[in-house]
Every structure is written in structure tokens, then in C-alpha cells.
Amino acid sequence: MKFFFTCLFLISYSLFSINASAQTRPEFRGVWVATVDNIDWPTRGNFNSELQKQEFIKLLDMHQRNGMNAMIVQVRPVTDAFYPSQYEPWSEFLTGTQGKPPSPYYDPLEFMIAETHKRGMEFHAWMNPYRAVFNIGRSSIAPNHITRIHPEWFLTYGDKRYFDPGNKEAQAYLTNVVKDVVNRYPIDAIHFDDYFYPYKIPGKEFPDYKTYNLYGKGMKKDDWRRSNTDSIISMLSAVIKKENPKCQFGISPFGVWRNEDKDSVNGSKTNGAQTNYDDLYADILLWLRKGWIDYVAPQLYWEFGHKVAPYEILLDWWSKHTYGRNCYIGLGIYRANSNAAWKDTTQLPRMIEALRKTPNIQGMAFFSSKTFEKNQNGWSDSLRLNYFKEPAKQPAMNWIK
Predict the structure, then answer these.
(1) 27-387, what's its fold?
(2) 187 vs 248: CA distance, rounded Å
(3) pTM
(4) Rg (CA), the chain
(5) φ, ψ at 5 (rounded to 5°)
(6) What are the CA-CA distances from residue 165 to residues 81, 173, 230, 235 (Å)?
(7) Could you count the other beta carbons within 10 Å of the beta carbon of residue 285?
(8) Which residues pair with 74 in a beta bridge?
């Protein structure tokens, strides 16, 4: 009888260990916190430093309860800063007026990193590389903003102003901005999203013809534009690893790299209007192959069976194009209840289950933080009580020493 109970105990313990191990395998669980236009933090009109801190702590505690292990926080939304910078003015989304410091004074980036690390979570500093003025008609522009100091570096497209990606001085400037942050703060990653060359406006050409005539050297314009984006990613990768070898460099691109009708070998079975390669001039696959970036987090914000870009098709496509780097799937929780598909309470859980069963996928990130406050479709409860019930370590990156 004693032998029987001993065996039963060993079997039960083994099953528990296997189950616990399955639940707690390394997995990236990130959340985007957008500061542009006060989407997620701080609340619009909240210019009080202490109240901003309280809001961020409340936000962090919510995500910790839900089982997250990484925060992707926008610290440079429009060539401005959520930290004291020798290059760029304080963000208007922090204080209401670009260039105005917080009052009472504090360093939001330093504060956010400390509070995030205190909870055992990674802090990924999210920057927008080229967007310089969010809205030409209503944005606050400080006297020391780089668009005033070097107006020749910038191009107007629609209602926004952008760095000219082909301008070599602008590339050097951006590199210095990133180098400064990596040098001064214990961040875990520099993170860029999908805004490289801007999304195309129908009937309007991006006005970079002067720079193209100067530097194009006989290349086709599309190839030249891609080479400009390649150069800045290569430069940033080198400077990040030189300044802090442990700091990751991650990109969250638009979910479609290229459609099959343009590339029958590497394109996905999608028929989306715009793509990374052909429209945003971002050759993500090259950056992965070259090892310039440590992870890719494609924004797969479409539902299962979507007529243009089905989630299941793109999930499979990205899993086959990681080139040994980590891949975290961007999930559009913000789309909850936006249409019939996103009113289906099983939509997000099925996405999580599918990515966990797919090879070469090491986790996920959710856009964006605000949605979790409403617990739409009960999905915050699902994460906390089921999918993220057990904490998970970050997935390995064996190439980072």
C-alpha cells in the first residue's frame, strides 16, 4: 500500500510539473502604451506630475495583475521627449506645451523604468523615427524644435511633417537621439513601430524628389527609398549594440510584408492595399536576415478569415520568415466590439491559442493599454484567470551575451 501511494504521489507530482512547465514556458507578453495624442497615458489634460505618476502606477499594476511581463512605452512620439533631452523639447502630450518641463519637475522616463523594473517587467522605449509634427494646424512647436532649427531636413505630407529619410544629416541626428537614450537609461529595448516612410495618401506623392535627385545615383526611386530605411536601421543597430550590448532592438511592422501578387516566392496570400516593402519602404526580412534587429512584432490586427489579410494566413507566414530572431505577434485588442467578428468573445482567445501552437512564435503584444481598463468582452479576466495565470520569463535571445 505504501508503495502504491508513493507511486501515486510521484505520478501526480510529475503531471503537475509538466502542466506547470507548459503554462510557464518563456513567453513575451507586452502592452503598447501610446502617449501621442494622450491615447493611453497621461490622460488628456493631466499635467500634474504626481497625478501622472499615480496614473502610471495604476496602469502598471493592472497589467501586472493581468500577467504581462513587458511595457512598450512611447517616449518620443513626434520628435519630442518624455525625458530631459539635449536634442529635443519636452512633449506637449506631457505638459500641454511643447518645450515646457513637468511641474513639479521629474524625469518621466526614469520614473517609468524604475516602476516597471520593480514589478519584474521589461521596459521597451518606443520611438517614432521620422514623424516630426503630429498636426501642422494645431500642434505645439517649441522654438528649439528641430523643425525650426533645420527646416531643410523636413517634408510636409498631408497634415504632418516628417524627416526626409534620404537626408544624411537627419539620419545622423536620429542616431544621436537613440544613442543618448541607450547611454543614459537602463532600458531593455529600443522599439520602433510601422511608421517609416508614411502611409500613402491617394493621389499624393511623397515630396522627396530633391533628395532623390541629389543622392539617387541612377537607382529606381523605390529601391533608393528602401536603401535609406535600411541604412538607418543598420546604423541604429550598430550604435545600440556598441553602447549597450544587452539592449534589444525591436521593430513592430505593419502586418503584411508583401502580397503574393507582387512576390510569388516570399509574398503572403493577402491582397492588402499597402505593404511594408512596396509602400512603407521597409524591408523587414532583410533586417531579420542581417541580424540588425532582435525581434519583430508584426501588427496582425485582423480577425480570422478576414477577406484581405486573414489572421491565420499571416500568423503562419511570419512564423516561416523569422530567420532565427524572436517573433511576437501584435494583437489588436482595441478592436473589441468594432464589428461582428470582434464582438465574438472567442476571437482573442483563439488568436492566443493559435500563436502558442505555431512554431517560431515566442509571444505577443497588445495594442493598446487603454482597452484593458474596460475589460471588453471579458478579455482582461481571460488573461488574468486563464492564459496568463502563471508568470512567464522572457524568451531567450542566445545571440545577446
Answers:
(1) TIM Barrel (3.20.20)
(2) 9
(3) 0.94
(4) 22
(5) -70, -35
(6) 20, 11, 10, 13
(7) 17
(8) 126
